[in-house]
Amino acid sequence: MKTYLTLAYLAFFPYYLVAQDFAFGSLSPEDIKLAKNDLDSFSNAAVLNEYGKAFMLYNDTKGITELYVDYHVRIKIFNRDGYKHADIVLPAYKDDTGERVDVLSDITAATINIVDGRVVSTPLDKGQLFKEEVSKYLTHTKFTFPDLQDGSIVEYSYRLVSPHIFNFRTWYLQEDIPKINSTFEAVIPGLYTYNVVLRGPYPLTTQDAKLHKGGFRIAGRDIDCSRMIYGMRNIPAFVSEDYMTAASNFKSAIYFELSDIYQLSGANLKITKEWRDVDRELVSSPDFGGQMKRDNVFKPLLANILKDASDDMDKAKAVYRYVQQNIKWNRYLGKYAESNVKAALESRSGNIGDINLALIAGLTAAGLDAEAVLVSTRDNGVVNEVHPVLSDFNYVVAKVNIDGAYHLLDASDPLLPFGLLPLHCVNGKGRVINLKKPSYWVTLQSSQKSTTQYTFNAMLHTDGMLKGKLVTQSKGYAAYRKRQELANYNTVEEYIEHVDETLASVDILNGEISGLENLEAPLVESYEVELKLHADSLGQEMSFNPFFINRLNKNPFNLDERTYPVDMGAASEERVLLTIKLPGNYEVTAKPDDYNLALADQGGRYLTQTELLEDTFSFSQLLALNHATYPPESYFALKELFSRIIQQEKIDVVLRKLTEE
């Protein structure tokens, strides 16, 4: 959920509110008494108080406006599992030139313990501050608090001076531990206009503003500022769970985006651009549009690449396979190329931009209609669809249009079939960039679902040994994941040994795998297996669990409340079909119930059925989740569905031999 806060109105709100930092080391009786279960049952630490202030000063020497951020936080560590919250990482960024650099200073930290009723404070030795060069754009300053104990209170503060003012300062009200209080003060000169957005499920408990006279000075002139105060109290911890995109999409936070700068001359410099401006910038960029145009690099290669292609789809697949097999991903993301198409092909290496912009150039050289699609990956967060913000995007894929349909392509993974995006790219919408036409949005969705079918045909022998053939057929994302898993083993035989160890009650006697080379074909695993059934002493009664294949052991949904969607990335379907030939006349004395459970709005279903016809026992199971994404309102239905599946899978089938009359 997003709430847009109107900055222009806040700037002249007549109510005067005083927000100020809390004194370092000044504990209250409530801070000391606070215990783990006072807030919730699962958090191992909590923020007692948090304060931040961001303001801007003009640097006459550098001739730029800089952002100053003062931050102060006090955290209580309840137990050893909460010690990780005393490992602090402070990021500092710089641009390509290395000249516009964030500077951290005034780092103060201390651990406070109560020893024999006395408050004992242990300050951080500044020699214990460590710097780590994460990349050419990012440096981490790290430290760990000294003298940690269960019940310790840790406190630190710092100042950050940054030339990066576009996003002002994002303030995260909600984190993965609860907060008793969080207050943020933003002082923004009247020369700068920001779009301000509150994201997340919880309302502010404080939102006030006043006019701050002469708070910014430039060229000898004092400029009035807007002083905004945002606060929230008793904030629940954000608990991450399976099937979600970036947590930042759902945590309560305040986001800023610079839209206008008013110059002293009276002119207005509009920062928030229109998409036509961004289109022009990208198409003219040598590292983006310039690489899309490098179709000449592929023209000498086309005769060989397209030698077996008979139509446009064959051409597209041939070019896709060529790029996929000839440029290896160097593990760096990016929407821009780091080198160029020719260099990437020659070195056989490149980042995401190099690979997929080369793919677009190759498709164009083959006479196909190809475009670029800017993407924000799932762990990077959703993009702003209201205003074009290029920094929201961290990835680029190709789009090829054939016979009235389009296909989204990512050639960075040699195991991805044509037209199947990796799930980390299936995230909201992407922006399509065309060299000649205006850009537009496209929904990023999976073109195939994840499908798995297990078929087990077997014969039960009088000694209780069940022998037969287990065939697993995987399609779509299921096949892609299986191929990724297989790639971790040196041989197919090693993988089969792994499967044998995974199926604890089953022995694999023989096995083979087909469909490995053809990425668009199903992946088929065939195993000759045997397993011993439980039998009574007389051999009259035998039992087994029919859910021995891919049994669900844990409910992925365990929260009391989930305020964000369940995002699986793709629809899925899993079937299990067992057919067992019995060695005589048997009856079924116990079995799982036949189920037919359905989710609302055709969201999915769960079916099980057992049947005994003469000497043949059969069992079938279907779990179909028909939507890629489910809203929070569907959470409890999903939770209940999986809970019932787990209970169902605990029930054995019992077969009793009938005596002959």
Automatic annotation (TrEMBL):
<dbReference type="InterPro" id="IPR002931">
    <property type="entry name" value="Transglutaminase-like"/>
</dbReference>
<feature type="domain" description="Transglutaminase-like">
    <location>
        <begin position="302"/>
        <end position="389"/>
    </location>
</feature>
<dbReference type="Pfam" id="PF01841">
    <property type="entry name" value="Transglut_core"/>
</dbReference>
<protein>
    <submittedName>
        <fullName>Transglutaminase-like superfamily protein</fullName>
    </submittedName>
</protein>
<dbReference type="InterPro" id="IPR038765">
    <property type="entry name" value="Papain-like_cys_pep_sf"/>
</dbReference>
